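User: Hello! I'm new to structural biology and keep hearing that structure can be predicted from sequence alone. Could you demonstrate with Putative tetrahydroberberine oxidase? Please show me the input and the output so I can see what each looks like.

Assistant: Of course. The first part below is the input, the amino acid sequence of Putative tetrahydroberberine oxidase. The second part is the output, the predicted structure written as tokens.
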Amino acid sequence: MNSRFTSNTTAKPLVIVIPLEVPEIQATVICSRRHDMQIRIRSGGHDYEGLSYVSEVPFVVIDLINLREVQVDVEKRSAWVQGGATAGELLYKISQKSKTLGFPAGICPTVGVSGLISGGGYGFLMRKYGLSADNILDAHIIDVNGRVLDRESMGEDLFWAIRGGGGASFGVIIAWKVKLVHVPSTVTIFRVSRTLEHNATKLIQKWQLVANKLDEDLNIRVILERVNTSTQTRKLTIKATFESLFLGGVDGLIPLMEEEFPELGLVREDCTEMSWIESVIYHGGFTSDFTSDQPLEVLLNRTHSGVLFFKAKSDYVRDPIPDIGLEGLWPMFYEDEAKSAVLIFTPYGGIMDEISESEIPFPHRAGNIYQIQHLVFWKEEGDKVEKRHINWIRKLYIYMEPFVSKSPRGAYVNYRDLDIGVNNNNGYTSYKKASIWGVKYFKNNFKRLAKVKTKVDPLNFFRSEQSIPSLSRFDNITIRHNTLPCEEGMQLLEFPDALHVII
């Protein structure tokens, strides 16, 4: 959770509903509509801009924390996971049933599955199997009328929309049926760091040329941050960390690296073999020691400790950033606000280049070399401190403009950034205005998302600063489907006595 949105001045919900059963969510949706109260849906609470638990107008939070059951079917290679589970809880339950089945979840185990899947879902398996949202077989959603719909009853348009289009725009997603994928009994990880004094810039250049062309079993991401050159001096430098997962043993990895990326100088001593689920623990930040014996139960932790404020942005790179571009970037990391700044380069290629831009709403596919996540962290409270750090990352974002995708400048909805545009807060936003941010996240798929939204939620009940807009007659976009009735036949329910409500 971003500490920027947990201060005493942050707007608080009028009601927090913590349902134990699905009918309680249905009642909450219907009652909230009756009383004209917005809903925020919290799965894991990881929305970068706090939209799963913060709003400027009177609102209700539905916290799905009690709905996190996972049922794994090894024979059918599938699992049902409730919307309140975290990625770590899902992967842990899979590992208890099989050592050679996994799921392409995100890197952070504490992220809620509903937010992860409904926005896309990056991870170390993406070059082999795609995003989390690419591996969904079915879903259960509560719509604006309080009905529980599965894939068949919701129809393929809505099922398409919730897999990468931001599920909270369309209803409350209470469960997902995920496709499990094969993982080998042994994988290999490495983490190799180089500073500017050890050719980091040249290594990044070579990485840009090969990372998206490597075997799909190999994923190498780059993490950039500033460090001291040594413990004895305050001189600063840039450290590039090459962090990898290889779906196989070290005997297969070393020859591959010697052929494709010899400049990194990887040796066997840099590598560690382990099970795939152990690599999830390592990459999830639960341990920095390859040899530490962390129990798998650490994946059941739902939160990271500590207070952390941050702001994030994202970009997509289609052509390698030249030396001059990288060298112009380094001085920005030496500024005071960049003390805890990080850039993460996530490689494309593999199956990501093969899936159509319109297969699901997530459109960032072939043509991208890698994706960038820009992050700046700070620990001090206060508006002035926050403003300085946010101004720094905005300046960085401006600097990066010549080197990233254009028309539109792409962005990833799960790294939500309200700087790129917001809806009106009066309940209606034109398609034209919403397109300012919408095409950055979804490109041409944004128009189809708006049509689906209009079909299933014509009065725009499920809305936020960056929710998909419902179209009006002023938007001049043809809708070929009849919209669902919003009030006709709807039965008003009161909150049941057993419902867990915090006021």
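User: So the tokens describe the shape?

Assistant: Right, they're a compact way of writing down the 3D structure. Reading them back into a model, for example: Residues 187-272+305-413 form a domain with the Vanillyl-alcohol Oxidase; Chain A, domain 3 fold (CATH 3.40.462.20).
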